[in-house]
Amino acid sequence: MKRFSSVAVICAVASLVAVFGSGAASASGGGTIAIGGLTSLTSTFTPWGIQARDGMQFAVNQIDAAGGVKGKGGGRKLQLFVADDTSSASGGIAAWKQLVQSDHVVSVGGVIDSDVAVATAPMSEKAKIPMFLTKAGTSSILTLKSRYTFRTCLPAAAEVAAPILQYAKAKGLTSIGAIVADYAWGYSIKSSLEATFATDPQIHLNIQDAPVTATSFTPYLQALQNDHVQMIIATGHPPGSGPILAQSLQLGMNVPVVGAYTPFSLVEGAAGKAAFNTWTDFKCEAVNSSGFQSLAAKFLQAFPKDGFMEDDALSGYAYVQIMAKAIAAVGTDTAKISAYIHAHTFNIPGYTFPLKWTAWGEIADARIALDQITAGPAPSGDNTAGTWWISQLSLSSPLKPYKP
């Protein structure tokens, strides 16, 4: 079982007192303003991390090309430092220390892995360093005392199961299967599914546990097939989403597969045309909006190898834009930056909802799109990975923020 060491987290947090004391972390000196990217680049969540990194860099490039951060930022340019968390708690702690203690960043963003977020959020809170989560949806990351940690795309896991149940009821389904991974996000999704589906005993739920590193899902799928499931929830196993779809089709299951903010390019690459009009997923980007399509075309001009602007890239872009606005208004004092962010609403092109937060950092009014891969064609310039495109099937009502 993939778990983080609470002793390691406590020791890491304690070591920060000697570095920062009890006040705000020191900001960048003269010249450029250093901001950090803490994300996954060489391990399980690499496809997510690359998108988040490139979205952050894209925003930095835009801001610097326009003369840097204005206002109290004094026309200073931004510099992005990125550290690889290796999709592990220990790797996240080491990467966080590099960014904060060596690179002297005033913020950290782009976090994908839930184990990384659970390990580093207490460190950011202690050091008073704003930290932005791109995915990392496990419910235990934030506490009611959190003031420097912000979700930017994926709501808490406890908020995810209700829309899935609503979808199943709308389709008249009676038997649902799920495959979850053995890490913090998977555990949170499993708990959420069990609690939510218990409210409707007419729908049978079969949950299969799989390693987060699994690539062959045949045994788990066969167990679901024997149970005659009518839908497969891959929400709790993001890395396996594409293979789960492809392997379910190989078994002749031919049932919808619902993911969890998995890169569409990853699923399409694994399943090909079989994903068209079958694979559906939750996203925080409004793919059919002019704001998204315009931004995505510019993004892909800068990063054509990324293929499609996933919501990981959009979230990374939002993080940097929000930090630039906060620094322009209040300077580089991190306590003032956090207070400014909490007090304002940010409208980012391409988002399905305005970004604003509860006092403890949950998204206040998240509205999540349910999207499906189609054959396309894609709008001009918005997909360098093929001609496929995305259709928005529905948009949720504002979700009630999870309260720890």
How would you sum up this structure in a few lines?
With about 400 residues, the protein is α/β, with parallel strands linked by helices. It has helices at about 5-20, 45-65, 90-100, 115-125, 160-170, 185-195, 220-225, 240-250, 265-270, 290-300, 310-330, 335-345, and strands at about 35-40, 80-85, 110, 130-135, 150, 175-180, 205-210, 230-235, 255-260, 280-285, 370-375, 390-395. It contains 12 helices and 12 strands.
Polypeptide structure, described:
The chain folds into 2 domains: 6-157 and 291-343, Response regulator (Rossmann fold, 3-Layer(aba) Sandwich); 158-284 and 368-395, Rossmann fold. The strands form 2 sheets. A 7-stranded mixed β-sheet has the order 7-6-8-9-10-11-12, with helices on both faces. It is globular and about 65 Å long. The chain is built from 12 helices and 12 strands. β6 (175-181), α6 (184-197) and β7 (204-210) form a beta-alpha-beta unit. 39% of the residues lie in helices and 15% in strands.
Query: What number is the mean pLDDT?
Result: 89
Architecture (CATH level 2) name of the largest domain: 3-Layer(aba) Sandwich
SSE topology string: HEHEHEHEEHEHEHEHEHEHHHEE
Number of strands: 12
- Structural class of the secondary elements? alpha/beta
* Number of H/I helices: 12
Give me the side-by-side strand order of the main sheet. 7-6-8-9-10-11-12
Q: Give the name of the CATH superfamily of the largest domain.
A: Response regulator
Rough shape?
A: globular
The CATH class of the largest domain is Alpha Beta
- Write down the CATH topology of the largest domain: Rossmann fold
